[in-house]
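Supplementary notes (optional reading)

For those who missed the lab, this is the record we used. Protein: ATP synthase subunit delta. Length: 182 residues.
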Amino acid sequence: MPLLNSLATPYAEALLQVTEARGESETVADQCKQLLAIWNDSEDFRDAMVSPVLEPDAKKQALKALVGEDVTPSVFNLLKVLADRQRLIAFDAVMLRYLELYREQQGITLAQVRSAQSLTEDQQAALSKKVQAMAGTNKVDIDLSVDPSLIGGFVVSLGSQVIDASLSGQVRRLGLALAKAS
């Protein structure tokens, strides 16, 4: 991934500079999250965008049809540049790097939360308060994902700190304790 980061960083930094100048950094951060969701959810879209067979103009037309009206001109211009330079393979790395730089600039802490099932709005709000207390700031960006292998509960990763409140984690710890006892 270091090579991809070295490719992604200049694009992400340029996007951050442009969005700062236009006062749309927060809006673009939200759009990056939405675009990443589309990218990760649609294998066909992802395959088409990274295909060397599809011409850059065709990729730009597809991007315009899919997200052209839903993103700021700054983001759409970045997408066009990535298509022109055959760099859409680094799309997700660029979006993730932008989000990293944005959080760093704004002093926002990233908390990754994996839960066994989707959380309700009330559960998300309660978890958000707990994570903010753990982080010591109310500037926390929570990345929620569902991981059925947890069986129940959740795992919170906040920097180097990991809180495993999952059923699979409890079973694993119990197994280790039993192994030590025997």
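If you only remember one thing from this example: The two ends are 42 Å apart (CA to CA).
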